[in-house]
Amino acid sequence: MEHFDCLIAGSGPAGLGAAFGILETRPQARILILEQNKTSSGGLRNDCKMNFTYPIGFPVEFWDRQSAAQYLERTENFLKPDIMPQKHIATYQKRASRIGVELLSIRQSHLGTDGGLALIKELVARLEKAGVTIALEEELLSIDKQEKIAHTSRRDIQWNQLILAPGRHGFDFLRKFMSANSIPFTDNSIDVGIRVETRIDNYPIVRDYYDPKFLFPERTRTFCTNSGAAHVVQERYTAANGQIWYSVNGHAFSAGNKTNGLVNFAVLKSVDFTQPIASGQDYAEYLASLAMLTGGGHPIMQRIGDFRLGKRTTRDGLNDDLYDFAPSLPSCTPGDISLAMPAKFLRSIWKALKQLDTIVPGVLHPGTILYYPEIKLYANKPQFIDNNFMADTDIYLIGDGAGTSRGITGAWASGLRAADGIIRRQGWK
Length: 429
Known about the structure:
By secondary structure, the protein is α+β, with helices and mostly antiparallel strands.
């Protein structure tokens, strides 16, 4: 049976950050990274947008400003991002503040989906050159935590330290892992929203600020803006009961690619549940199943003009009259999102969009498209036993799936923080 100093499940930014963090102090450490997919996955593949300002990407229940600043600096020094310029921020902030909205000024970098894939290739090559073993298409199934043996889809492995970094797609896997290993956690928060797609001319702020972060009342916010060579995609998820469902997301290629003149961004509302709902994950999957039922197995899309009139969008009406661009995700089902989205979410999001149209006039053009659902699954909140995300003896849970981050830089930082705990625990200097 092979033995490793550290076994990392998940090759997204959290897992990669942890591996590089360990190697900085212990270059001879034996590290194995498991990845259930054919290629290294995670947030670096999805548009590769990075934010370098607290608290974006850093859940405040796990990070204060001082600790985040330390790890943000280390993350930035390693990734060496090109920070994008911003213009006219004060003007937009003044407009926003007049109506009770906050626009955050965030230091940002954008590589695009193609740039993210190139970065993954470079990082994996560096790890392999340093002696790290990366096992693709190999899934962690279970562990014997007393014997420190991991059972995978291919073999048994012995480990000294175990890091789980499964990302948002691994939310349900992590929930089952914690239950099987008696790790206390809560799962009572969800982010539910829509993705907006329109012409850049209708949302020109992106020419001044690539991914503007607006915070609206009622815990509603903009998230993950993509422009230029931008398109909406659907992401496949498997529910706890085995049902397949799709959430929409946004991508964009790097600035060197030909623009299609479109922009897309999410508007999300956060909700924390109390009794009697025990699981935000189960509720999110229920909403997703309702959306799939309404959309015939696909997400739903609706033009703003139709939404205002209280009528469904039809396939024939998608490009008539003022509806002057084709949806970048044509596989979505034209319909009425109000049939699938709870009113509490929809009211808050529509209120936010009307405020946004006051700040950036034009975004509510009749041709603008609303896609539903966009659901973010990072509601697991393990009960950690130290400040380095150790949830059980020599077991660390990091990244978006574990609720310790919300995005690439926060995930990388959480990997570094777990690595610091391992280095100290192992006595490596």
